[in-house]
């Protein structure tokens, strides 16, 4: 596209919508809400057919069984690992075998970090070997480890107040769990804040809604100009115990050993497959989940189930012989856990077509019994989504909540494309998230099949409506 045409297409957005046929090719909305409502009501039989196939028909346990085969075969899929690349190749073949169109891989440069061996042993006031998991991108310790006294804090405020006590210590964060979004700040920037006040390492209470002595890993980021100190998560139980010890004035000493190491970037891929639109093939409804995971457990919940429920949505639609007017595009992201690396690149490479993206969807919050859809978009678009979700009355999953954002669709949402996330019981999700417990055993095929039904109905109907979702 020449810069001149580019400018012209850009200017179209500045014109009032629907001012005349000439500019109404792809972004205009000529129907009234009442007409759209009526149009959506016409999908009741299709929605019922999708639900029947997903929940009762021959598809039944399919997404669960497909996922079990992949994760039992490959195991966890850390970015930069051979496991992830093996999973990507298997998925490529799976999507080809499923008869989907335009199956291809889009290369992405991704970080490569490995944890190696790691341990944390309390030496004072008593010997206690602690369960830990180094945080993604953390540096390691010297081979002999770091042995230091502990400073326990319950917030960044407390750390700053007690900054003078932190020098040379291992900072232990015992922050309360106030939901993932808020508490995850301690995991993401705990090491940097501790290093700024002279700490030699930091240990962070796992960001988890429930614990049976399980450390929960995740990404953390260093900051330019701040010393890089080793950092790991510890269990809720150990964090709380050390807080009790400290409050009694007891001196705590820990020896931390970590072999964690960052390697040069490596190559990975976003995996793409489509059902090509019958009338507006250039227009897209994007359905997605991420294929990478942490290196513990099986990455079954996070995000194997989201990726496979997204694939299942296309499979169900195809099995019913349906072909929406717009293209349904499945993207299985790589390197989400490292900070949405695959999805950022995808956005940069495809945003030239942003005016033709109707809806971006991501399932990365679990696939237990769905409670509804989290949605971000204009009031007009929300009203349409509510009508679409009404089609799911047969499985009583009709609610539309706020905050449809997700790591892998945020770039599109911030640029104005409506976005949706599949919502379920987050307390249950964050009990297993990023831990050794993230296995098939935590999933339930009887619930995953509902997720697939919701995902397929929403993606199909939005992709098949006469008009794109309004922005
Ligand atoms: C679905 O999977 C569950 C768990 O593996 C199993 O108990 C059940 O029999 C399966 N149902 C069908 C219809 O295959
Ligand atoms: C604690 O462990 C250290 C090294 O692992 C050992 O030398 C020491 O004897 C132990 N102390 C007690 C009280 O068990
Ligand atoms: C943009 O969309 C057109 C079809 O409208 C397609 O041919 C082209 O490959 C797309 N470009 C990118 C970068 O996705
Ligand atoms: C969007 O799709 C329409 C047809 O549906 C096409 O005419 C237009 O060129 C596309 N725009 C871009 C930016 O690809
Ligand atoms: C349907 O879902 C709503 C909201 O989640 C719930 O309050 C209600 O009890 C459900 N009804 C049935 C029949 O399950
Ligand atoms: C799908 O889920 C529903 C609801 O949990 C359950 O009744 C049904 O048996 C499940 N289907 C299969 C094949 O497991
Ligand atoms: Zn995830």
Supply database-style keywords.
471 residues; alpha/beta; Aminopeptidase; Glucose Oxidase, domain 1; 8-stranded mixed β-sheet; 16 strands; 37% helix; elongated; disordered N terminus; binds 2-acetamido-2-deoxy-beta-D-glucopyranose; binds zinc ion
Quaternary: single chain
Helix content: 25-40%
CATH level 3 topology of the largest domain: Aminopeptidase
The average pLDDT score comes to 94
Identify every distinct bound molecule in the structure, by name, code or SMILES: 2-acetamido-2-deoxy-beta-D-glucopyranose, zinc ion
Largest beta sheet: strand ordering:
1-10-12-11-13-16-14-15
Q: Low-confidence parts, pLDDT < 50 over ≥5 residues?
A: 1-23
How many distinct helices?
Answer: 15
User: Major β-sheet, in short?
Assistant: 8 strands, mixed
Find the count of extended strands (DSSP E, 2+ residues): 16
Would you identify the CATH architecture of the largest domain? 3-Layer(aba) Sandwich
Percent of residues in β-strands: 15-25%
Structural class: alpha/beta
Q: So what's the overall shape?
A: elongated
CATH class of the largest domain: Alpha Beta
Number of domains: 2
Domain Peptidase M28: 270-456
Pfam families: Peptidase_M28
GO cellular component, one term: lysosome
Main location: endoplasmic reticulum
């Amino acid at each position: 596209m020449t810069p001149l045409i580019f400018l012209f297409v850009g200017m179209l957005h500045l014109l009032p919508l629907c001012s005349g046929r000439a500019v109404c090719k792809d972004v205009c909305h000529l129907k009234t809400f009442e007409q759209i409502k009526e149009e959506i009501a016409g999908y009741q039989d299709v929605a019922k057919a999708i639900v029947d196939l997903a929940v009762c028909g021959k598809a039944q346990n399919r997404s669960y069984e497909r996922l079990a085969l992949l994760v039992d075969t490959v195991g966890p899929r850390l970015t930069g690992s051979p496991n992830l690349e093996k999973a990507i190749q298997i998925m490529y073949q799976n999507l080809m075998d499923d008869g989907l169109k335009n199956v291809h891989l889009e290369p992405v440069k991704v970080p490569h970090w490995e944890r190696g061996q790691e341990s944390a042993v309390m030496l004072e006031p008593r010997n206690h070997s602690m369960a830990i998991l180094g945080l993604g991108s953390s540096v390691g310790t010297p081979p002999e480890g770091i042995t230091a006294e502990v400073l326990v804090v319950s917030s960044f405020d407390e750390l700053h107040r007690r900054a003078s006590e932190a020098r040379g210590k291992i900072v232990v964060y015992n922050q309360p769990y106030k939901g993932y979004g808020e508490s995850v700040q301690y995991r993401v920037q705990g090491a940097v804040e501790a290093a700024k006040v002279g700490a030699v390492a930091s240990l962070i209470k796992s960001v988890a809604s429930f614990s049976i002595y399980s450390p929960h890993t995740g990404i953390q980021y260093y900051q330019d100009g701040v010393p890089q100190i080793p950092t790991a998560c510890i269990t809720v139980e150990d964090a709380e115990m050390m807080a009790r010890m400290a409050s009694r004035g007891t001196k705590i000493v820990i020896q931390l050993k970590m072999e964690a190491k960052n390697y040069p970037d490596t190559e990975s891929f976003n995996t793409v497959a489509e059902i090509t639109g019958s009338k507006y093939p250039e227009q897209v409804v994007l359905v997605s989940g991420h294929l990478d995971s942490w290196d513990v457990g099986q990455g079954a919940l996070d995000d194997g189930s989201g990726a496979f429920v997204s694939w299942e949505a296309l499979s169900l639609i195809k099995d019913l012989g349906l072909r929406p007017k717009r293209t349904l595009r499945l993207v299985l992201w790589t390197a989400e856990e490292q900070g949405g690396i695959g999805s950022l690149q995808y956005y940069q490479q495809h945003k030239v077509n942003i005016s033709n993206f109707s809806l971006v969807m991501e399932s990365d919050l679990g696939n237990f019994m769905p409670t509804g859809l989290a949605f971000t978009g204009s009031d007009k678009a929300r009203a349409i989504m509510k009508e679409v979700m009404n089609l799911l009355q047969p499985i009583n999953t009709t609610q539309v909540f706020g905050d449809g954002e997700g790591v892998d669709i945020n770039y599109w949402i911030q640029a104005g494309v409506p976005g949706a996330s599949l919502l379920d019981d987050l307390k249950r999700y964050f009990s297993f998230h990023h831990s050794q417990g993230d296995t098939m055993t935590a999933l339930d095929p009887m619930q995953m099949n509902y997720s697939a039904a919701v995902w397929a109905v929403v993606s199909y109907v939005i992709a098949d409506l006469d008009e794109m979702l309004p922005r």
